[in-house]
User: Fold this.
Amino acid sequence: MVLNSQLRSWLTIVGIVIGVAAVIAIVSIGEGMQASLEAQMGSLGGDLLTLTAGNSKGSRMFGHGGGSSSVATATTEKIVISRTDLQALKGIPNIEFIDTQIRGNVDVSYLGKTGTVSLSGVEQKTWSDITTVEINEGRFLDSADQNVIIIGGRLASSFFDHPIGINKMLTIENSAFRVVGIIDDSSTNIYLPIQMAYQVLENKEQDIYDSIIMKVKDEDQLDFTIAKIEKKLMTVRHVNNKTKDFTISSSKQLMETRSEMMNSMNLFLLAIAAVSLIVGAVGIANTMFTSVLEKTKEIGIMKAIGAKNRDILFIFILNAALIGLVGGILGIFFGIILSEAMNMMIGASMRMLKGGTIVSLNSIIMAISVSVSVGLIAGIIPAYKASKLKPVDALRYE
Assistant:
């Protein structure tokens, strides 16, 4: 039946191909983004919390490390994170490590060349236990270190005319520092003991921090720990929920928020793709109804020589399922091509969302199942109508 009306059948199959290709492309891109997010979450550290000054309702969208997202408050007193807050945090049981940090831009010189880079003062006793950066060469900061620094990969390799190696001396704001470690990244950041950073960053006040990074012992109790921290800090800072002047953010919450946003977007796109499948189903039903009309006499002849209703029903349903199967297979093929093309366009315009594509076996099985099911559902009524034709009426049909 399909072979006897090839053009009409292929036009019907095109509708299924479009729908399945859209579903495969959306699902594969969504799974690729999800895998990328999980990798990012692992690199950010899902068990890390960041305390910053100022109450920003949207701060959890931006993860730890930010210190300038506070909203304006009706007060002339500068809101800061101080040693008092640090002491309060040390009494919370589920916090394993605490790292205090200050940040700023500094001029750094090497072999007569000078440039401006970002500098972070960190608590060298705990920084190696908390940070997610990896050392490519050398070592982390030690508790006894003073005039030593760890530098980013690009600062070591290409920021100056000559590469910087371990034990080389850099001049930061007229003070000499020895390089003891090079980070495996492409940044120009510099990390050094926080007490040395206070001396380099003249606008920073002793025991006032830009942020406090905390690592929790049990990640499953992250929300409980955040609640404990907020309650403790509100007590020591003499604020309530309305006047709260600090923010606690977590990488895990950031990734969960991004994941929820992407899931919602994927569901929306899948709904659009489902419309294409519905259009394809209508096309199959239309093709099968037309086939019933065209093959009425043949149906009458088959019944006259002994074919039963279930035989006619099976033939038409088989044809409908075959159209769905062919459409599904071709849809998977074009869906893979479409997903790669869409991923390249996303990478060019939204680098943060680029995550490759993953066409899983489950996606292929789902696409085949859906396309065959669509064919079966669309072919049931025409097949039933054909099976119920009376032989005499069918043979008289002109």
